[in-house]
Design brief:
mainly alpha, elongated, 445 residues, Serine Threonine Protein Phosphatase 5, Tetratricopeptide repeat
């Protein structure tokens, strides 16, 4: 009577353990995936989480962790799909939004990333990583003030995170708060004394603050720690140029160009140094690397009257030096045209010099030095009216441009406007250009 019952008992014995085994197997695969992820075996982890998902397709954590494994393998598109599913199953998981945002950022979808980071912060407002990540995305889409606020909040929540101090220092530079950035870079250096980027960042800020000696000290350390840092060589060269160590600057620009051949600013800087060291040919080659273009100009003749004749005018004017000091190369590269024009003039190519100065002014109509230099050349060509016009423009742009008052004064005097000329010479002397007083003594009494 018991025989029919035995198979049933046996069936139950086999069925119950099978169900339990299937449930445990899904958990086993999940835990195996976690273990493999921790050990860095992301391929193995991905396979394990896939098995867990096959056995339990409604488990958000399995999708999330598989997404993490994919992201670790740089499969960010695949990771985003897994995070999407994890969020669909559990819309309150702050980490899923944070991780999806990170993968979107890797795909250059910074606005999408920003939305995910913001949602993560809503769900977990005390996570410093979310603020840091959102700050990074904001910075990439040039929302620098928002980025600054996020980095500051991240530091408030986690004062030991050195990366956030560095990111905040860079952001302050973007906002032209170079003075404020110094404290952040200094904090990074205190926490990690071997981080070359912090020395480089602080050195760059010091350059912007005109602390060229301090900048060189920091950039020396940056280069010591990272000898292949082309930017550090570039800025050190710039600082040396500001201190008129043109040979030292030249060597740094050489090295910067060797490390990063497409740095047109380094060619501009090297050209400037070569010009200062008398290598006008080399200067022209470098300025040409930084820019391209040419144009032409015409000159005019005038009648000289009064005691300042053409030869006297030429002699007085030729003693004046152009204000050719190195300054940061703007995106329009007007400074490179200006410096190349000065070099061409020194080589006797007045027409080419005028062409470059024309282009410099076209690109930057507020470039007082370019107007003044062009005025000097026009005067040398005999176009005194044009020279006065350029001096007028230089003075409008810089009312304390003493050399421009001086040159305009001697030209006006040479054209018969003795009163106007002497008033200009007086203003030049008042502004500190002492040679004006010699001209006043000779021609205004």
């Amino acid at each position: 009577m018991m025989r029919p019952f035995l198979p049933l008992v046996i069936l139950l014995c086999f069925c119950v353990p099978f169900v339990a085994s299937a449930q445990q197997t899904a958990v086993d695969f999940f835990e195996s995936g976690i273990g493999k992820s921790k050990s860095g075996d992301f391929t193995g982890a991905l396979q394990a989480f896939s098995m867990a998902i096959t056995m339990n397709p409604e488990n958000a954590a399995s999708y999330y962790n598989r997404g993490v494994a994919k992201a670790s393998l740089k499969d960010h598109r695949g990771a985003i799909l897994d995070y999407d599913r994890a969020i669909e199953l559990n819309g309150k998981d702050a980490m899923a939004y944070l991780s999806r945002g990170a993968s979107k950022s890797k795909q250059d979808d910074h606005r999408g990333a920003l939305l995910d980071f913001s949602r993560s912060i809503e769900l977990n407002p005390d996570d410093p990583q979310a603020y840091y990540s959102r700050g990074s995305s904001r910075s990439r889409i040039e929302q620098y003030r928002g980025a600054l606020a996020d980095f500051s909040k991240a530091i408030e929540l986690d004062p030991a995170n050195v990366l956030v101090y560095y990111a905040r220092g860079i952001t302050k530079q973007k906002l032209d708060d170079f003075s404020g950035s110094l404290a952040d870079f200094t904090k990074v250096i205190e926490m990690t004394p071997k981080r070359s980027q912090a020395f480089s960042g602080r050195g760059i800020s010091k350059v912007e603050l005109n602390d060229f000696n301090g900048a060189i000290t920091d950039l020396n350390k940056a280069i010591e720690l990272s000898p292949e840092d082309a930017e550090a060589y570039f800025y050190r060269g710039y600082a040396k140029g500001k201190l008129e160590d043109f040979k030292g600057a030249l060597a740094d620009y050489d090295r910067s160009i060797t490390l990063k051949a497409d740095n047109f600013k380094a060619y501009y800087g090297r050209g400037f140094c070569r010009g200062k060291l008398g290598d006008q040919k080399g200067a022209l080659q470098d300025f040409t690397q930084a820019i391209e273009m040419n144009n032409s100009n015409t000159d005019a003749k005038v009648v000289y009257s009064g005691r300042i004749t053409r030869p006297i005018l030429d002699n007085l004017r030729n003693l004046v030096q152009e204000r050719n000091r190195i300054s940061e190369l703007s995106p329009e590269r007007s400074e490179a045209y200006f410096s190349r024009g000065v070099s061409k003039n020194k080589q006797g190519d007045q027409r080419g010099a005028i062409a470059d100065l024309n282009k410099s002014i076209e690109l930057n109509p507020t470039y007082a030095e370019a107007y003044f230099s062009r005025g000097l050349i026009k005067s040398a060509q005999g176009d005194q009216r044009g020279a006065i016009t350029d001096c007028n423009d230089a003075i409008k742009l810089n009312p304390r441009y003493s050399e421009a008052f001086y040159v305009r004064g001697i030209i006006r005097h040479s054209l018969g406007d003795e009163n106007g000329g002497c008033l200009d010479l007086s203003k030049a002397g008042e502004l500190g250009y002492n040679p004006a007083y010699k001209a006043i003594s000779d021609y205004c009494n």
